[in-house]
Write a structure and sequence with these properties.
This protein is of the alpha+beta class and 466 residues long. The chain has a single domain, classed as Outer membrane efflux proteins (OEP) (Up-down Bundle). The chain is built from 9 helices and 4 strands; from the N terminus they run ααααββαααββαα.
C-alpha cells in the first residue's frame, strides 16, 4: 500500500471502530401532559400550538416598539457576549474534530560535507510525515468530538434563549415607560385640578364663606399631588435609562411611547395549545438536552480509556545531492511504524473518570428535567394571570367610571353649599387612585402577554412582511 493511500484511509479506519457510548434515551418530561386550564386559567384549544412560530414583528405591532427591539438585538452588549461564546464553542468543536485526522508536518535540511580532497558535497533532504496518529478503534476521539459538538449546540440554543429573553425584556421596559407616562399625565392633571380647587377655597375664605381649615386641606392635597408628579418624572427618566441600557444605545424621542392606552401595541391573543410538549421546543430546554447528550459521549470516551490505543507514525521524503532535481532523483524514502499501548495501572484514575462521567450524566438528567419543570411553571403562571386579567380590567374600568361620577356629584354638592369640602376631596382621591390602578392593570395585561409569548418560546422568527 502506498503511504499516501494509507494516510487517506486513516479516517475511514478510525470511523470503522467501536463506539462505547451508551445509547441516548430522552428522559420523560416530569410534568403533566396538558397545560392547566379552567378555573383561574383560560380554556385552551386542543391540537398543536405554534407560538414559537410567531415572529416578534408579528406579535409586537407598534412600529416604534419594533424599531427599539431591532436596536436591542443589534446593540445589546450581553447578547454580543453570548454570540461570541457561540463562536468560541464552534471553534472548540472544530478543534476536537480535527483530532480524527492525522497532522502532517514537513521539513527540509541541507548539509555540506567537505572531503579529504577539499571537495564539498551538498545533500538535500525534504521530508513529510505524521507523528503518533491514533487510530480511533474504540471511539474515544469520536466521542470527544461529539461531546464538543453537543456543547456547541447547547451554546447556540442558549443564544436563542438570550435573544428571546432580550426581545421580551425590551418590550416590557418599553411598555413600562408608556405606563409611567400615563401615570405622570394623571398626576399632572390632578395637580391642575387641585390648584383650581385651592384658588376657589382662597376666594371663599377671603369672602368670609370659607375657612382656613379648607384652605389648609386644599393646600395639603395640592402638595401631595405635586410630590407625586416629581416622583413620576423621576420614574420616567429612570425608565428611559433602563430602556436605553437594554437597547445598547441612546434612543430618539420619536421611538418612545407617549401612552400605554389599552395596550394595543401587541397582539391580544396567542395560539396556546393544550399539550405541554410545546415546552420541549424552548431553547433553554433544548440546550439542557444537548448538554445531556454531551455527557453520553463523555461516558463513551471514558470507557474507551480502558482499552489499548493504536498509534501510527509515518515518514516519507526525497534526498538528493542537487536541489533542482531533488524530486526527480528517485531517492524516495518511506517508513511506517505502529505502536500499541495499554494502561496497566493508574491508581484508579480511569475507573474514576468513568464514574465521574456517569455522575455528570445523572446531574444533566436532573438539570434537563428541572428545566422542563421551570418552563411548565412559567407558562402556568402566565396562563393563571391571563385567565383573570380581563376580569380585573373590567372591574378597574368600572371603578374609574363610578369614581369619576361620584367626584362630579360631590363637587356639585359642594358648589351648591350642601356638602363640606372633605366630600369632593375624598372623591377626588378615590378617582386618582382608580385611574392609576387602571393604568397598572393595563400594564399587567400587556406584560403578561409578553411573558406568555416568551415562556412559550416565541420571539425569534420574523415575519417576511415589513
Amino acid at each position: 500500500m502506498k503511504l499516501r493511500t494509507l494516510f487517506a484511509t486513516l479516517p475511514a479506519l478510525a470511523l470503522a471502530g467501536c463506539n462505547l457510548a451508551p445509547k441516548y434515551v430522552q428522559p420523560a418530561a416530569p410534568v403533566p401532559q396538558a397545560l392547566p386550564q379552567g378555573g383561574s386559567y383560560p380554556v385552551l384549544a386542543a391540537g398543536d400550538a405554534a407560538t414559537d412560530a410567531v415572529g416578534w414583528r408579528d406579535f409586537f405591532v407598534d412600529a416604534r416598539l419594533q424599531q427599539v427591539i431591532a436596536t436591542a438585538l443589534a446593540e445589546n452588549r450581553n447578547l454580543r457576549a453570548t454570540l461570541a461564546n457561540v463562536e468560541r464553542a464552534r471553534a472548540l468543536y472544530r478543534v476536537n474534530r480535527a483530532a480524527l485526522f492525522p497532522i502532517v508536518n514537513a521539513s527540509g535540511t541541507l548539509s555540506a560535507v567537505q572531503g579529504t580532497a577539499g571537495r564539498v558535497t551538498d545533500n538535500f533532504l525534504v521530508q513529510a510525515g505524521t507523528s503518533a496518529y491514533e487510530i480511533d478503534l474504540w471511539g474515544r476521539l469520536r466521542n470527544q468530538s461529539q461531546s464538543a459538538f453537543e456543547s456547541y449546540l447547547a451554546t447556540d440554543e442558549g443564544r436563542k434563549a438570550t435573544q428571546i429573553a432580550l426581545v421580551a425584556e425590551t418590550a416590557t421596559a418599553w411598555l413600562s415607560y408608556a405606563a409611567t407616562a400615563d401615570a405622570l399625565r394623571i398626576a399632572e392633571e390632578t395637580v391642575a385640578s387641585r390648584r383650581k380647587t385651592l384658588d376657589v377655597n382662597l376666594r371663599r375664605e377671603a369672602n368670609g364663606i370659607g375657612t382656613k381649615l379648607e384652605v389648609a386641606t386644599a393646600t395639603t392635597a395640592l402638595n401631595s399631588a405635586e410630590a407625586a408628579v416629581a416622583e413620576f418624572r423621576t420614574s420616567l427618566a429612570q425608565s428611559r435609562n433602563a430602556l436605553e441600557l437594554i437597547a445598547g444605545k441612546p434612543l430618539a424621542d420619536d421611538v418612545l411611547p407617549t401612552t400605554l392606552g389599552t395596550g394595543d401595541q401587541l397582539r391580544d391573543a396567542l395560539p396556546v395549545g393544550l399539550s405541554s410538549e410545546v415546552l420541549l421546543r424552548r431553547p433553554d430546554v433544548l440546550a439542557a438536552e444537548h448538554d445531556l447528550k454531551a455527557t453520553y459521549a463523555d461516558i463513551g470516551a471514558a470507557r474507551a480509556a480502558f482499552f489499548p490505543t493504536l498509534s501510527l507514525t509515518g515518514l516519507f521524503g526525497f534526498a538528493s545531492a542537487g536541489l533542482t532535481n531533488i524530486f526527480n532523483s528517485g531517492e524516495f524514502q518511506k517508513t511506517v511504524n505502529g505502536s500499541l499501548r495499554q494502561r496497566i495501572f493508574d491508581g484508579g484514575a480511569t475507573a474514576n473518570n468513568l464514574a465521574a462521567a456517569k455522575a455528570s450524566r445523572d446531574a444533566a438528567v436532573a438539570t434537563y428535567e428541572r428545566t422542563i419543570q421551570t418552563a411548565f411553571r412559567e407558562v402556568a403562571d402566565a396562563l393563571a394571570r391571563r385567565g383573570t386579567i380581563d376580569e380585573s380590567i373590567r372591574a378597574q374600568s368600572s371603578l374609574e367610571a363610578n369614581a369619576a361620577t361620584a367626584y362630579r356629584i360631590s363637587q356639585s354638592r359642594y358648589d351648591a353649599g350642601v356638602a363640606n369640602y372633605l366630600e369632593p376631596l375624598d372623591a377626588q382621591r378615590t378617582l386618582y387612585n382608580a385611574r392609576q390602578s387602571l393604568v397598572s392593570a393595563r400594564l399587567t395585561k400587556a406584560a403578561n402577554m409578553v411573558e406568555l409569548y416568551r415562556a412559550l418560546g416565541g420571539g425569534l422568527v420574523e415575519s417576511t412582511a415589513r
